[in-house]
Write a structure and sequence with these properties.
The chain is of the alpha/beta class. It has one domain: Rossmann fold (3-Layer(aba) Sandwich), CATH 3.40.50.150. Helices cover 36% and strands 22% of the residues. The chain is built from nine helices and seven strands. Strands 3-2-1-4-5-7-6 form a seven-stranded mixed β-sheet. Strand 4, helix 7 and strand 5 form a beta-alpha-beta unit. The radius of gyration is 16 Å and the shape is globular. The protein binds S-adenosylmethionine (SAM). The site of S-adenosylmethionine (SAM) has 23 residues, from helix 2 and strand 2.
């Protein structure tokens, strides 16, 4: 396989960061193009409102979001892990990458002078993030999204049975008008399902 000069080979950044921060990174390899395409197709792309990807890693999903994005739609990425952010900046030099925590989304948007936010695509390991942290990140997303905004994410199939019964899944149902999911993307390792939550109702104030 040809190597891209100055760019870490696919998977190496995610794997190395998983070894040091397993709960934060939550995967040993980057997502497949098939999952990237499934997420990009699930976004209802706004013309003017911004789209934000949180937890882009080294850009496996990002490149498909950028390919699907209408030319005028503002887009940037929020990545907690500095090494992943550097790998992403090398891979996609024109992309704006903010090194920060999704939980700080409100202050990030204020600092970056973002107007309306039409979608947050949070491709981070939701099923292994501690409950309190998940609720905090969801509160930030709900506070940031426009009234017709969307929150998209993926869950690995092996986590689905626990996920469906989790307090966080209940909280999502309380917090959005609709929740849809696609079919299993079997070409991803592990296979994953894309969820799209639309129409934020309110900021959560309990873990359910
Ligand atoms: C499972 S990896 C996914 C990487 C990439 N989106 C993909 O699908 O290949 C999760 C990524 O989320 C990032 N992350 C975890 N918690 C985060 C947070 N609170 N805010 C922003 N990024 C976070 C991790 O550093 C990691 O890069």
């Amino acid at each position: 396989m040809p190597k891209e000069e100055g760019i870490a080979p696919a998977d190496s950044t995610i794997f190395r960061q998983f070894v040091t921060k397993p709960r934060e990174v939550g995967a040993i390899r980057r997502s497949s193009p098939a999952l990237g395409i499934a997420i990009a197709e699930a976004v209802r792309w706004p013309d003017d409102a911004a789209v934000i990807e949180a937890g882009p890693g080294d850009g496996a999903i990002t490149e498909h979001l950028l390919a699907a994005k209408p030319p005028g739609t503002p887009f940037f990425a929020v990545e907690l892990n500095r090494q992943c952010a550097h790998a992403l900046e090398r891979r996609l030099p024109d992309l704006k990458v903010v090194v920060d925590d999704l939980a700080n989304l409100c202050s990030i948007c204020a600092r970056e002078e973002v107007g309306e936010v039409g979608a947050v695509v949070a491709t981070l390991p939701w099923s292994v993030v501690p409950e309190r942290k998940r609720t905090g990140m969801l509160a930030a997303i709900l506070e940031t999204l426009s009234p017709d905004g969307q929150f998209l994410f993926y869950i690995y199939v092996q986590a689905l049975p626990f996920w469906r019964r989790s307090p966080f899944a209940r909280l999502l149902h309380e917090s959005f008008e609709t929740i849809e999911h696609g079919s299993v993307v079997w070409k991803n390792v592990p296979p994953a399902v894309v969820f799209a939550c639309r129409g934020p109702r309110r900021a959560p104030n309990s873990t359910g």
